[in-house]
Amino acid sequence: MTSIPYIDEARLWKRHMAMAKIGALPGGGVNRPALSPGDAQSRSLLARWAEDLGFSVATDPIGNLFVRRPGADDSLAPVMSGSHLDTQPTGGKFDGAFGVLAAFEALQAIHEAGIVTKRPIEVVSWTNEEGSRFQPGCSGSSAFTGAIPLDRILAAVDRDGISARDALAAVLSSERGMAMRPLGFPVAAYLECHIEQGPRLEEAGIPVGIVTGIQGSRWFAVEVLGDEAHAGTTPRRNRRDALVAAVAMVSALERLMLDEEDRVRFTVGRFEVQPGSPNTIPGRVFFTIDFRHPEASTLKRLGDQVDAVCRAHAGPCAVTIEETFHSLPTEFDPTVVAAMRGAAERLGVRTLDLSSGALHDAKFLQDVCPSGMLFVPCEGGISHNEAENAKPSDLADGTRVLAETLVALANA
Amino acid sequence: MTSIPYIDEARLWKRHMAMAKIGALPGGGVNRPALSPGDAQSRSLLARWAEDLGFSVATDPIGNLFVRRPGADDSLAPVMSGSHLDTQPTGGKFDGAFGVLAAFEALQAIHEAGIVTKRPIEVVSWTNEEGSRFQPGCSGSSAFTGAIPLDRILAAVDRDGISARDALAAVLSSERGMAMRPLGFPVAAYLECHIEQGPRLEEAGIPVGIVTGIQGSRWFAVEVLGDEAHAGTTPRRNRRDALVAAVAMVSALERLMLDEEDRVRFTVGRFEVQPGSPNTIPGRVFFTIDFRHPEASTLKRLGDQVDAVCRAHAGPCAVTIEETFHSLPTEFDPTVVAAMRGAAERLGVRTLDLSSGALHDAKFLQDVCPSGMLFVPCEGGISHNEAENAKPSDLADGTRVLAETLVALANA
C-alpha cells in the first residue's frame, strides 16, 4: 500500500443531498419506495456517477446494482460494500443511502489514490431492504444469498396490487443495455456502513461503531378472550375482563424483561381492545410482542418464558400465544471485525463495539461470506423518521475506516 | 278508570324481534350505533307503528323521538315513558329497546282499552344513550333536561371524524316533515322500563324490580404522549413508551379501586394505541375510565385520586386527564316509587326494591320531573353482550306494571 485514500467529506455530503432530492418530502425526509420510479432514478444517478469515473455497472435478476473496480487478479472474488437506496414511507436521508454512498466514495478515493488491489472491489445497492412496499424486506440480499427463492420474492404484491415482478421489470426496462450477472456469484468479504439508528455513539461522543453482530428477534402475537359485560352493573367477582388480564400480562412481561444492562429490547407495539366502548368490559385484547437480544442464550431463556408468563396472568380469561418470527443473533466474522478495528487504529479514529438492534442486508451476506458493519452516529438516535440526521464529519470518518478496511481485505 | 289495559305479550315480543333485525349481528346481538343509518331505520319503524295507530310523532333539536296520545286536557304536561334504541357495538336485543317498546305497548293497550287520561301520555326514544359512538352518552336526555348544552353535545366526534352534529343532520334530513318541538318542554312524570343488567331479580325469581335509585358515576379520558421510535434499537432508558406508561397507570388504578365488598365498579373499556405497528414504540395511548359507586363519599374519595395516580405513573411520558362525566348518586321520586309499587300490588305482580348499577336517561329526567324505573330480569344478568336475553313473560309483567302506573300518574 503506497498511499492512503483521501475521503472528500464535502463531496460525500453533496452526494447525500443530491440523492435525497429524489423522493424528497416537505418535512425534510425522503419517500423512495423500492422499485418505484424514484428508486429507478436513484439507481441511474449512481450508475452515471460510476460511469463518469470509468467503473463498470451491472445488475442481477433481483435488480441489485453493482459498481466494479477491477483487481490486479480480476478472476478473484471481489470484496464488496454497500447498502440500499430505498426508504421508509416517511424516511430520512441517511438510512441505506449512507452505506451505498460511503462505499462509492471509498471506491473513488482508492481509485484516485492510484491504489492497485489484488481483488476487485464492488459497490452494491441491494433491492428493497426496507420491506415497506413489498414484504418481507432484504429482498436483494436474501435472493442473492439464496435465503429466499427468487420466485417467492417476486410474487410479493404491494398495496396497489402491483407485483414485485412487474415493478422490477419496469425498472430494468429503463436500464436497457446494462450487464446482467447471476445471483450468488462468489464474494470474498462484505462490509456495510449504516447510521446507528440508536443513541449510543452520539452519547459516547465516538464517531464510528464496530458492529460485532446483529441481535436476535422473537416476535409473538397474543390474543386474550374474556366476556363483554356492562361496566356499571357487573361485580368484579363475575368479570372476565380481557383488558385487566392483558395489562397484567404486559406488566409481568416488563418485569421479566427488565435487565440492569439495558440490552433487552422489549416492545408491545400493537394493542387492540374490543369492543372498545367506554362502558363495556372488554371481551378481547390482541397484542404483539417484539423482543430482541444480542445473545442467543438470553433470547432463548427469556423468549421461552413468554408463553408461561402470559398464561400465569390470564386470570379468568383464555389466552393463546403464537410465535410469529424467530431469528437467531448473527455474529459477524472475527477476521472482518479485526480488519475494521485495525483500520480504525491505523487512522487514529476512535471506535466503540456495538451490536445492531435493527436487521440489515449484512445479516444475509454473513451466511455466505465473511461480513461486518460500521455504524456512524445519527442525531438523537432518530431514524425511520423525517427528522433523521447525521454529521458530515462522522459520515466521513466512517467512510475513512471503510476505505482502509476495503483495501486491506482486497489485498488479503 | 273503567278497564285494565291488556298487554299483548306476543305482540311485545314480536316488536322486539323486528327491532333486533336492524343492525343484527351473526351472533344474535345487535350493532345499532347512535345516529347511524340503522338508528334512523329503527326510528322510522317506531314512527310507522305510531302513525298506524293514529298517534302523532315529533322530534327535537337533539333528535329525541316522541309519540303522543292526547289527554282529556291536552294543555297539561304529559306523563312520559321510554328509553333508547341505540345499542353497544356488540349489544343485545333488549337494552334500551325494551323501555321504548314497553312504553309503546302500554300506550297501545291504554288506547285500545279506550281509557281517557287527564294528561297526555308520550313515548320517548332518547338519542345516544350508550355513548359508544359519541361521548358522553345520554345525549338526548341531558340535552332535553339542560344538563349539558346542546352545542357541546353536537361537537362530539366519532372515531371516523364524523361529528354528532353532522350525523344528526343526516338522520333528521331523512325524516323531513316530522314536527319539531323545543328541548325541555314540561313533563309531569317520567317512567323507564329496562332489563336489570345484573343477576338479582333472576336469582330471587321475581319478575319486576322497583328501582329506588342509581349509583353515581365518574368518567375520565386519559391521553398519554411519548415518542415513536425503533423497537429494535432504542434502549429502555431512552424510551418514552406511551403504552408502558398507560399500562402502569391502569395497574395502579386497579389497586386503588380494589374493595373487599366488591361494590366499586371500575372499567377501562377503550384503550387505543398509536401508531399500532409491532416494531415501533407507541407514541400515544388514549384510554377511558368508567368508575361507579352507590355512595357519594366513596365516589369522591376514590375519583379524586385518579388524576394523581395517573400522573405518578406517567414515567417519562406526558399525560392529560380529563373528567368527562361526573354524576352523583340519584334517588328516584318517592311518589313515583309509591305509584309503581301500588300498581304492582293492584295487579298482583311480585316486586323487589333495587338500586341501579347502570346509568339511565331517567337519571337526567329526575332532575326536572318526578321519575322512576322498573327492571325486569335478564338471563344470567348478562348485558352489553350479544348473548343478552329476557323472558317474554317478564317483559310483559314489567309492561303491565308500567301501563297501570302511567294511567295512575296521567290522572293524578
From TrEMBL, chains A, B:
<dbReference type="Pfam" id="PF07687">
    <property type="entry name" value="M20_dimer"/>
</dbReference>
<protein>
    <submittedName>
        <fullName>Zn-dependent hydrolase</fullName>
    </submittedName>
</protein>
<dbReference type="InterPro" id="IPR002933">
    <property type="entry name" value="Peptidase_M20"/>
</dbReference>
<dbReference type="InterPro" id="IPR010158">
    <property type="entry name" value="Amidase_Cbmase"/>
</dbReference>
<dbReference type="Pfam" id="PF01546">
    <property type="entry name" value="Peptidase_M20"/>
</dbReference>
<dbReference type="GO" id="GO:0016787">
    <property type="term" value="F:hydrolase activity"/>
</dbReference>
<dbReference type="InterPro" id="IPR011650">
    <property type="entry name" value="Peptidase_M20_dimer"/>
</dbReference>
<dbReference type="InterPro" id="IPR036264">
    <property type="entry name" value="Bact_exopeptidase_dim_dom"/>
</dbReference>
<comment type="similarity">
    <text>Belongs to the peptidase M20 family.</text>
</comment>
<feature type="domain" description="Peptidase M20 dimerisation">
    <location>
        <begin position="213"/>
        <end position="314"/>
    </location>
</feature>
<keyword id="KW-0378">Hydrolase</keyword>
